[in-house]
TrEMBL record:
Protein name in the entry: ATP synthase gamma chain
DNA-binding listed as a keyword: no
GO MF annotation list: ATP binding; proton-transporting ATP synthase activity, rotational mechanism
InterPro entries reported in the protein's UniProt record: ATP_synth_F1_ATPase_gsu, ATP_synth_F1_gsu, ATP_synth_F1_gsu_CS
UniProt-listed NCBIfam families: ATPsyn_F1gamma
Pfam (any one): ATP-synt
Organism phylogeny: Bacteria, Bacillati, Bacillota, Clostridia, Neomoorellales
Length: 283
């Protein structure tokens, strides 16, 4: 049985860890509120843009649009969006598992674009081809970062390095629920963008010209939304993980305190017995 000194040292150590996890939970909760507000604000704009693009794609010849024209897929790219840090429960592990499953079941040549240090480090050790990597996105992604990432993805697609690009990220529903998913980014298909005909609208200068100017923005907004969803999911997963760690630390402290009290009581009882035995010996 551990000594009283060892038990007291363990209780002190676990209590210090509990202070850290509680502080991390509060920080994650504050960041989650901001990230959730950004996600909520971005969704209506993204959905309306998808509707407009889908309506336009139903009225033009897609072969004239480089980002939407169908072509033979010789190489597939997966954009894996993970976090730069751990201590977020199974958030990073679930995304990496999904990406690994897609890469293993992919019948065509595939490559990876890693956004986040966790995904990059994992697949770099497994000799997976990584054509681009982005780290240090920060806790609040902005449109400038999304625009640069989207520009590089579009360049890879137009150059023929990748013939299809998919986003792997976690969609945020609540602090307790984040669902990893795969969305196609390029080529943009009419099924990916919701919309119908154009009979009620007049476009200037022409539907094809409007669509050509909207498709790059559509890619930027889709990447931006994925970054926001991923960051909100990461904060929610980290807050939940730190809350569970704090509760587990409290349970361990209670058990160790009970063991400490028992050991102290046993020591007191033993001392009393020794005193009584000594007094009897002197009689």
């Amino acid at each position: 049985m551990p000594s009283m000194r060892d038990l007291k040292r363990r209780i002190r150590s676990i209590r210090n860890t509990q202070h850290i996890t509680r502080a991390m939970k509060m920080v994650a909760a504050a960041k989650l509120r901001k990230a959730q507000a950004q996600v909520t604000a971005a969704r209506p704009y993204t959905e309306k843009l998808e509707e407009v693009v889908g309506r336009l794609m139903g009225s033009v010849d897609l072969m004239s649009q480089p980002l939407a024209a169908p072509r033979e897929v010789k190489k597939v790219g997966y954009v894996l969006i993970t976090g730069d840090r751990g201590l977020a429960g199974g958030y990073n592990a679930n995304l990496i598992r999904l990406a690994e499953e897609r890469l293993q079941t992919e019948t065509r040549p595939a490559a990876l674009v890693a956004v986040g240090r966790k995904g990059r480090d994992y697949f770099r050790r497994r000799q997976v081809e990584i054509v681009r990597s982005f780290t240090d996105i920060g806790d609040e992604p902005d449109i400038t970062q999304a625009r640069e990432l989207a520009r590089q993805l579009v360049d890879l697609y137009l150059a023929g390095t990748l013939d299809e690009i998919n986003l792997i990220y976690s969609r945020f529903y609540s602090a307790l629920r984040q669902v990893p998913r795969v969305d196609r980014l390029l080529p943009i298909a009419a099924d990916d963008a919701r919309g119908g005909g154009v009979e009620d609208y007049i476009y200037e200068p022409s539907p094809a010209a409007v669509l050509q100017s909207l498709l790059p923005r559509y890619c930027e907004i889709k990447v931006y939304r994925a970054l926001l969803e991923a960051k909100a999911s990461e904060h929610g997963a980290r807050m939940t993980a730190m809350d569970n760690a704090t509760e587990n630390a409290a349970e361990m402290i209670d058990k160790l305190t009970l063991s400490f009290n028992r050991a102290r009581q046993a020591a007191i009882t033993r001392e009393i017995v020794e005193v009584v035995a000594g007094a009897d010996a002197l009689k």
